[in-house]
Amino acid sequence: MSENKFQHIRDIEFKRLGDQVYFDHTGSCLYTDSHIKRYSEQLTKNVFGNPHSGNACSEKMSDIIHQTRLDVLRRFNVTVDDYDVIFTSGATDSLKIIGENFNWTPGSVYAYTEDNHTSVVGIRELAAERGASAYCVSCAKALLSGCTIVKAPQNLLKSKSSNENPLSLFAFPAQSNFSGAKYPLTWIKDVKRNLLPLDLIHPSRKCNWYVLCDAASFVSTSALDLKEYPADFVTISFYKMFGFPTGLGALLVRKNSEETLCNKKFFGGGSVSGWLASRDFHSPKPVLHDRFEDGSSSFLSILALKLGFDTFNQLGLTIDAIEKHTHDLWRNLYYSMKTLAHENGMPLVEIYLNQDDSTINCTSQGPILAFNIKRSDGSYVGYNHVVQLANSNNIYLRGGCFCNLGACVSLIGTEINVLLEAYGNGHVCGDAIDLIEGKPIGAVRMSLGPHSTVGDVNTYIEFLTDCFREESCVYTSQYSADPDKSTKIILDDILLYPVKSCQGMSVKKWEICDTGLKYDRMWMVVDEYGSPITLKKAPHLTSIRPTVDVTKQCLTLRADDMDSIAVPFIQNLKEAVVRDLNVNAKCVSKVCGDTVVGYDCGESVALWLSQILNVSCSLVQKCFDSQRYTSKRFNAYGNPNKISLVNEAQLLLVNRSSIEYLCRRMIEHGYLDESDTMLDNMAKRFRANLVVSGASSFSEDKWNRISFNATNIGGKNGRVDMVKCGLCQRCNVICIDPDTGQKLNGPLRALANVSLSDNAVRRKPTFGIYLKCDQSSCVLTAKSEVTIEDIT
Q1: Of 7, 115, 215, 496, which has the fewest CB atoms closer than 10 Å, so is most exposed?
Q2: Residue 403 is among the residues annotated as catalytic for this protein
Q3: Whole-number mean pLDDT of the chain?
Q4: Identified catalytic residue from 403, 408, 663, 735
């Protein structure tokens, strides 16, 4: 199948991609338009019933399920005489079935390779619970004979056990979902012939080995011939093959190995031939898949799977053609990235592979590339920053360890003690921590699929060159921790953002309440499902200009070419109904994982917003008495403080000198055109509440306690103290022009390349500091003096 044919399929079946570049096929393949159209047509033309019901539409569905099982087996070159197919919710569910039901006994061994998905490793807990010994092995250069133990077992294997021939299980991935390394399928027969070198564990006895092959990553772009490589158990997730349906996978069980899954206790509807409620009696169904598919199957998803096979066949997307296409693209990508370098010759990319380039071919390497970006001085760029910057360029990647911490640690070289300490300090998978002491604890992953093209690869190489290749040294700021005693630091501006993600409102003076600035982020726009609409989703939110009238207790929204609309404050539900705002009930939504209770502000403002954003949406006001607190990561700075709908902390401060410095760097490198309004435009991007002037650039990073002039409610002059509780880590929101809603990548790129005067490169794109305030019922005034009380 020619590259032109693949490009034609991309042009016809994926018009919705437009200029977006999708490199997360290992996360999920993309579904074709034809697949969805076929599925919709089948649903609208037919009546499909529950296969357990026994009527005509039920029998039709039963026939489709049977044919789909045959399609699955055909894909792997076997028949119903060789394997059974148990439909599950995905590969993880399939692995759980094995762990829960395998015939573990004292003396059994569960051996799994270090390079494995979380769900494969999780089986060890179930094995150990029944007395088996679980070992993690590392296979140097993908050689079975070179396996070494890298983890002591939960249970020590005894030389004698109650079972002279205990059943044991070896688990490995056909393809690493971290690096794309393909492991030899010949291991399947070798392990069953007792060639796994674990005699150092039990030299006096050989195990009765069975083999689990996790093929979820492998089968999306490679052929798996189970006739030639008869693994006992094979796990699959179909969305990785077709993109749709999600929530459907399969466990393929070799007929000769069925008896090993003998520990099933629970039974559900459809999985038993007979049972009694008044007696301890039930009789499992004799056919394996009937016995393990408790309850009604996801029969409409199985219909979608059948149509997935049919669609790929119609398009000519054979697995051999897909394998060649994706491997050719991978080689193009790999060698292009490998040659990228900074002006001083330092490599731009550090790639993580399990093998030397000389041995790379389509049988040893899948279309996955894991890497980190390095600066010209050899320091690392955090993978979160790379993913965010790619997002702002409509390029979709994944960062982290991809549920494969073993391969991640092994290939990157992360110290186990470093990770244990990080977990002890609150680090969790998927959080913002990507560098510890300057070293990466994860990577960026690109994964190609049938619908990737040469144009996608070229776009990404251009992105790396434009955004990360350095032609000179990183910028050095005029950093000074101590403020200049001869220059006063002034509170230059006070801003609040009544509606989350919309324009800010500059004020001369404003009240501090127990959540920060009063009415700051008290409202948010939500979609038809109640989820917040943010700048990342809808840049045109910047066209909405909210103002708050405290006297009239009213929020007013304005936008170009629209009449303004007034939204009265809602004190409680009863008041909302009296005001005839058409509020039916309280709304429940989530902001940064926190549950938020609010009030729908009515149909009028919903229609007004929907016209501007061109999506169905509404305005929600947070209940005044609904409590939400600062991020847990700020607990070290004292008791949690109440917050409104902000992401993390009560207040955000930025330094005008830091903004000016960043603007100069952007102008020098062509990211920004110099203009009179440029500084104000840049200041708006950072969405700060407090803007100060008079301090040296980036000195705010080391301020710990700050004192502002304030007026107590009642008229008495005084001061209000605020405590820094962290640096504000920046994402691609700062790339959105607050005046036009257009994206400009310069701010995020420039920020990542700033270094301090002590040559400590800013490892993360942070800008501004979070503040917390334990005082309330006082008023801040712009242009008043600021005192820095404590400096690190």
Answers
A1: 7
A2: yes
A3: 87
A4: 403
